[in-house]
Amino acid sequence: MRHLTVSDYREMPWANGRGKTVELLRVEDAQGLLYRLSMAAVVEDGPFSIFPGIERNLTVIMGPGFDLVGEGIALRALALVPVAFPGDVAVRAVGTAGAQSDDFNVMTARRLPKPQVTVEHDGSKLAAGGTLCLFALGPVAVNGVAMARHDLILTEGPATVTGRWPVIAVRLAV
Known about the structure:
This is HutD family protein. This protein is mostly beta strands.
């Protein structure tokens, strides 16, 4: 089990230059990006960065949310409701009404199976299988290990969540 905290993360500009992201975890191989977990704030209507060959999954973790629209895409990004979309389709955030929404992002190479992204609560028991990434939205424990807000635990084994705050669970098959 690996435990990452905010001191392990790095901030960088968005690919389109319209904001910043906090990269929590990035794993690459010889062909490029395998997967990346990050956080960002959407503060206004506007385009998302385009990532060819990447599948995206976004979960609003704070704020009112917004709509994601593009060619063949019309999604409502609401708090704690994961939404998936292709990274190589031009998508815009609309309906922000000037309110900030913070989100948790999962990007995976299209050559991989799509990740399973769920929101888990106190008492959730997750089976082993693949790489399980658990992102805390407040003080909780995973397998008895205390986590602060925005900590990330990675495990190949099973996980039990305890505490009053939700955890975003991402299961990656790599």
